[in-house]
Amino acid sequence: MSEKKITGILNRVIEIDLSSKTVSTISISMDQRRLFLGGKGLGLKLMYDRLKPGIDPFGEENIIIIMTGVLTGTSAPCSGRFHAVFKSPLTHIIGSSSCGGSFGRMLKTNGWDGLIIRGKSPSPISLQIHHDQVEFLDAKDLWGKDISVVQAKIGSKENETIVIGPAGENRVYFANAASGYRYLGRGGLGAVMGSKNLKALIVLKGQYKTVPFYPEKFEKLKNRANTYINRNPMSLLMRDFGTAANAEYIIKNRMLPVENFSFGNHQKAMEITGRQIKARHHTKHHTCKPCSILCGHKGMFNDSVNTVPEYETLALLGSNLGIFDTNFISLFNDICNEKGMDTISAGGTLAWVMEASKKGLVDIDLEFGHPDKIIRALNATANLEGFGKDMATGSRALSGKYGGKEFAIQVKGLEMAGYDPRGAYGQGLGYAVANRGACHLSSFPVVFENLLGFLDPDTIKAKPEFVKFFENFYAALNSLDICQFTGYGLTLETFLTRITPKAVLAFLMQQLPSFALSLVDFSIYPDFFNAVTGMKLSSREFMIAGERIHILERLMNTIEGIRKADDTLPDRMLFESMKDDPRKRCVPLSPMIDKYYRLRGYDDEGIPKTSFLKKLNL
Ligand code: SF4
What does pTM read for this prediction? Predict the structure, then answer.
């Protein structure tokens, strides 16, 4: 069949009902495209129009939406991404997850920008999509199998898949789903697929090729983007050491989670840095495609080639459990990847159980620093064996049942990522107000507070402004769809930022944050949007789209009952300092929240005001 060209988008989404086995097509209007861009933004909009509030995340009414962006399928750097939106069983609010696997690119070759899945199959199935055809394939023989086993059985050079493991089938609240060796990790998409008896999504190679509307402009932008990325120190660090490059900064600033966020450092902490891992495990690149930063790696662990654990995994399944042996952390990572569980939530949950066991709240043989027990606990969780059935519900539910809420390190039910906010107050605010829970990818002020050193980590000044900026910016990037890590090179290497001395930048950012943020040049992103689709989009419109997307997600969460009381941190972060912190810091959250609400146009309860929603065309 001859190849057909599409300039960025076809504005077509396929909707599949598993209960009735029916298929229909939805058109996206150009107005919706401009307002919500694609990826996460359009996924949320489609969800908002369809999802009934208050439904059971494991009920038939839950919906899974998988959306690509206008850059998905092009050769723009770090653009091979797609997004999933669903109601999360872990948080009971909107779950969203970004992935660098190739499923989204392949979906687009069939002329679909996205995919909506409704209903529930009466028995295990896989869905296979090719052009306009959808097949409901029997998957009884795949049920109960680990992710790599299923991938080997159904995968080929002519298709891409999204697969869940036994944890997803067993509805472990934090079960993930795999696209190749990249994961839709947070919030339990795998469990929602499992509740629908959906073992795998398969998309065969189609006949469409995504090409830019303005090819010359696109090539120039691509070259500029690659130049910026190739000279940006953070991008180069990630290229060398992966996200584990963060570990050295985090350790230096004493904010590594150790033993359920009790300490900020450990004498063996340097064992888990990217530099150590590179030297010891002979790492090589193993990345999303296409990518110019190249943060993903594989290396030799336990005598075989394996994916290098991300920083979050090293922190949550490593130091936070009292483990610093990278071979063991790789093994834990492997179990989670095979059974299909998010490593951050798995680590946060096990750490709670370890502390609860020490305090006598639960009678479980699980202790910090004991790898054999961790291996058993991870398998028991995925298979719902014994106490694993409780562990499969995450740390919020566990602490609700057994007590110990003050040391359940989660927000809105989502376990916290690997940056202790007592060492970076802005990150504390970021976790507290993030739409999907204690997530570091909603906003990442710690990069300016610790990693790059532009902001004082121990003050609340300027933090609400930066959290708001990051949230809008990342929502827009996740809707293009392009990797958030491009933010380093594509904003910090622009002309103005590059010629301004660091001390001047730091002064402006800390003292005049709104002014400093108004100078950030991110025009390369809307320029890419224009080069691919032909549609004009100003930098202002791009950033307002990001804000609209973020606020829409917040609105959906408030409809589910989220209020100010939920925008908080675990008591440990608010009232206890890290045991090894000589400055005895806790996060002064309350004044940051008040300022943040004012900046965001929320009322006193954290609900977006009607006038503000109207202003955003919501
Ligand atoms: S930088 Fe890393 S996460 Fe981003 S696209 Fe490249 S490999 Fe994937």
Answer: 0.97
